[in-house]
Amino acid sequence: MTITVLDTARGIAAVLDAGPSQRAGVLREVLAPVEGMFRYFPGEIDLVAMHVMGSGFPLDGRTAEVRDALSRLVEADAWGRTERALREALEVQTAATPGITVPDITFLLMLGDPGAEYFMGPSRGFSGNGSATGYISITLWPTDENLDRLEAAAVHELQHNLRYAPGGVVWNPASVVVGEQIVSEGLADAFARQMYGELGYTPFGVPHLEDDAVFDKVVTGLDVGGMQNFAAWVHGDEAALLFGGTPVGLPTAAGYAVGNRLVDAYLAETGTTAAEALHVSSAEVIDVALRVLR
């Protein structure tokens, strides 16, 4: 098993140093090592288009602002910190679940777009993806909050990567339901909290952790299938509207808040740690948690 943290500090600088007409080509080279992250997407993938869709930094305009943000990430040792965090978390996880499949992992840290309304607003300048085994990406704007919880964010995405690795939980797009993603977010936060305490909470879900009305509403959607519906139930109405889904009457990151409550109830009732619960089925987590919470 190897962990490869891409030198995107140098790569982003190269993009910014290039002439306007060359920037897309340079960025495409920077992103080439993570092309496999999009292996489940239909048709040919344009890596630059995926960068834009994922709120990556703009290729034209705001160059000085992006340079300043890059300097802040370098000064914070963002790349070294995430690599150390991933290695330490793997030691904890494999000690709790010896024999699991640990894939080679390529890690991408990318600067976000300070002009992207949803990204900088409800998403608080952060987006992560660890669902494609073998790849982890984090796109962020270096706010104090995001820099403080950089390790926790990386470990959250690592937990996703290992949950869906071969021999673990199977994510089948034809049959997966909202409950699986909600539980997976709760488990990933719980593992990050096991490692880093309160910093492990994904921040945009925290305001709804104790909201019983939000909890009761989300629970009614746990069996909803069709991944086009997941944004509304997991990320909330604003995300649903942004991605062409149908709102269901939920605030931002409602599913994260409910996932944390479900997982915490399960872990407390069973006396297990988040690391030990890596491959527990979402159905079991939900069944145990609802018996406790209702």
Describe the model.
The chain has helices at residues 8-17, 23-31, 47-53, 63-75, 78-96, 117-120, 144-148, 150-163, 178-196, 212-219, 230-235, 237-242, 254-270, 282-293, and strands at 3-5, 105-111, 126-129, 135-140. The protein is of the alpha/beta class. It has two domains: 1-168, no CATH class; 173-294, no CATH class. A hairpin with a 5-residue loop joins β3 and β4 (135-140). α1 packs antiparallel against α2 (23-31) and α9 crosses α14 (282-293). The longest helix is centred in the N-terminal third of the chain and has 19 residues, at 78-96. The radius of gyration is 19 Å and the shape is globular. The termini are far apart. 43% of the residues are buried.
Q: What is the overall pLDDT average?
A: 95
List segments where confidence is low: pLDDT < 50 over at least 5 consecutive residues: none
Taking the sheet with the most strands, its summary is: 4 strands, mixed
How many separate helices?
14
Distance between the termini: 43 Å
What fraction of the residues are assigned to beta strands by DSSP?
Answer: 5-15%
How many domains, as an integer?
2
Name the strands of the widest sheet in spatial order: 1-2-4-3
Q: Cα-atom Rg, whole angstroms? A: 19 Å
Number of strands: 4
Structural class: alpha/beta
Order of helices and strands: EHHHHHEHEEHHHHHHHH
Q: Helicity range of the residues?
A: 40-55%
